[in-house]
Predict the structure of Fibronectin type-III domain-containing protein.
Amino acid sequence: MKKVIYIILLVFPVLAWSQAKEGKAAFIGYNGIYIYNLFKPASVQHPDGDVIGFKLDRKSSRETAWTTIQKFSSPSNYDELVKGYEKAKTKVFEYRQESAYGIDEVWPIYKKTFTYDSLSIYVTQQALAVAFNLLLVDTTANVADTYQYRVVQVKRDQTNGALYTSTPVSYAYKFPANKPKAKLRSLLGGINRLVFVAKATAEEPEGLLIKRKTEDGKFERVMPFYTIEKIKDSITYMVSDEDVSSEKLYQYTVTPVNRYGGGANSVSDTISANAIDQKLLIPKGLTAKADSLNNSITLNWGFLKPDYVSTVMIYRSEAYEDGYTYLSSSQTGVYVDKSVIPGKKYYYYLTITDKFGRPSERSTKVFGLVQNLSKPIAPQYVKVASSTGGNVLTWEDYSPATRGYRVYRTDQIEGKLVPASDFIYVDSKLEGKYSYTDTSSLIKAKGYAVRLENLSNVQSEFSKVVYVADKDKTILTPAIQDASTDQKYVYLFWKQPTSSTGVPSGYNLYRKIDDGKYEKLNKKMINGTKTSYRDSIVNMAAEIYYKLTAVNTNNVESEFSEEFQAKKSSQEVYPPSFLKSFVTNDKNSVALQWQPSQSKIKNYSIYRYARGEEPTVIAEVAGTTRSFIDKKYNKDKTNYYYIVANNDKGITSIKSNEAFVILNK
């Protein structure tokens, strides 16, 4: 290891202090207060004039008298210096055996004159300075108090000679440094190398308190090699720790301090480091367990070094060799994949990112397969149309769990369905929209249905049977049955026409305003399952008329329905508001309540209907009425209600808000 000298700038000035003058001679240090002895060396054997020794006095801020805490002299022989040196090693902030000067190097120089001449480079090391009593360490001070020190010469007659007093010092002192930020961590040759940076302050740090923690311990001081470098307005702290094990995880902090280790305040970020073999981080014992009941696959695994793990990355593919993509992450030893499709086999492997951001090699691969034994939903939006090439059947299915389809046909209405196609496999390019053309001329097919099979080989029920319409026959003409209006819209209602010769595929709605021409309203055909339409009207004062046609699966349009005129909404009559409904306690009737119309009215018409049925008037009540009891409601369906207000001129309001009830059996 490279040697580095941590310099204590010892100055040997001409002593100019008097008993009444104080100087900066004491400093807060690591585990003690450090005091300079600025006098020339003196002992009984080698006095400085009539001075044969010294004493160190101390006074706290709560005391008025000085107390002598140490009497000492400069070392006068080799053994005395060795003894003092051994004690000093455990006292000082920094002692490094690999870079320390030995007594055998220093003693031959010192014994020539028993002065500090030619020793300045040696006593820059704290342990030697303490061994020569140039630097004194008080380890008995109370951290909660403030102290002053004085160093006093002792003459041969035991009277005091010259002395000097330090300025007050306290453990409350904090070294003025900014918090070091973690910048870099590297592992080279089994050495943990760490770099911290901070913005420089006026007073540059002269020491670094380094603490290290293992996963099973606490932060303790260590003394690795370090450097402090100021570049422009920033300070860089570099630490190289050789005393590490590849089996342990380490965490480090650094704190800038003065040359004696005092004033520790700005603790750095924590940097984690280790030199572990990355193969020890590979997840072990990876298993995959399929849960068909909950439609999931559970992955379990273990770690050889769990304390080193930061994140587990999970990858999945539908093929063993390739195609793996990132699925999710985990910080435990288990992950439940709930995004699986029943009937598909999934392959998994894991990698680990350790606490230093390094990825491990991948784990072994495992697979899981979930089965779904429940019946899937049959294909939707099944339609059939005749063409010169045959009957074309179309349907839609967007389930990712579908394996394929089979088309069935019948030669009579509600007849037996028999297979018409081979198995048709799912094709992702079709984006869920499929077709099949029946070119068979052996039978005269009338109806078709589709059945799907999922990836677990479970078949659905048959889809809705659709029938081929005769091109020479049109379907029944629909009839508009009712309409209502408000200030913006006309609401049209009709009943779906059905017959064995054709089933409506959709509707076209036509409108005429005043004496104009009929124009088709819908840009796209209205779905055949609908029986209502909302028409937006700009001029409600106009005369508005409608006609409706039905369209079969061959796009053959029926005759026009009879002309229907929409009644204008009168702004003079307002409907009741805040209509509410609820089932009575005995569940034998429905109670309705509302707030009155803001118009002068004669009575209210109360309407009731169920889905698929036309609204009917169930009662007319006086205009002063605010409630109604319906004892004849349909207990097997959801009942919907609305109210219309009528004035004495026969003008009606638009519908009130709707209310509904569901009987809880």
